[in-house]
Amino acid sequence: DTAVSQTPKYLVTQMGNDKSIKCEQNLGHDTMYWYKQDSKKFLKIMFSYNNKELIINETVPNRFSPKSPDKAHLNLHINSLELGDSAVYFCASSKRDHYEQYFGPGTRLTVT
Amino acid sequence: LAKTTQPISMDSYEGQEVNITCSHNNIATNDYITWYQQFPSQGPRFIIQGYKTKVTNEVASLFIPADRKSSTLSLPRVSLSDTAVYYCLVGDPYNFNKFYFGSGTKLNVKP
After folding, report:
1. What are the tens digits of pLDDT across the range A18-76?
2. Which residues fall within 8 angstroms of residue B93, CB to CB, at 6 or more apart?
3. Which residues of chain B lie closer than 8 angstroms to A104, CB-CB?
4. Chain B contact for A10 (CB, 8 A cutoff)
5. Does A104 touch chain B (CB under 8 A)?
């Protein structure tokens, strides 16, 4: 059983399109996150959700919007995609004391 | 935010002990220090976490001096499979504050 899963694994799309990445965790965790990892391997937290409330919101463009239908899911919607959005996006989850996070396999987004 | 600084890369040989240091000069009182390991094309994986002094688990040890301005991840007797990027993370796990991943240290273990 996969603890944290993401779909799709690869996503290639054109500038201006709107896309979504899905994330599901079966660990019963309270908190879920989205990270962006750029080509230089820097990991930047984008969003964090705890019990369906947005609790961390980094200075990301409002083209990015997290949606959590329930505690086990946190999807990432991206509108009007730009070249600079190309990166690997990781979903993660943790218990409330969030130092131990479980990461998904990542979604490699390529915007052409 | 407690910004972290790590060496970009390190080389080692199989069987050696490897120590990776992370600097976090403005660490806050409630911040904990956590280390993650990342293999290519995979998500980061939790290794160890600590607040002060020394923490040891089956994988690694974490040394934190009294001033907590730095920390050292120690990997005993590394093997080729330990080749990965190691990230230092500093943040408060009991409040939903922002936390910060370091830039990572690429460890290359040679035969």
Report:
1. 999 999 999 999 889 999 998 888 888 888 888 767 776 767 888 999 998 888 999 99
2. A97, A98, A99, B32, B49
3. 43
4. no
5. yes
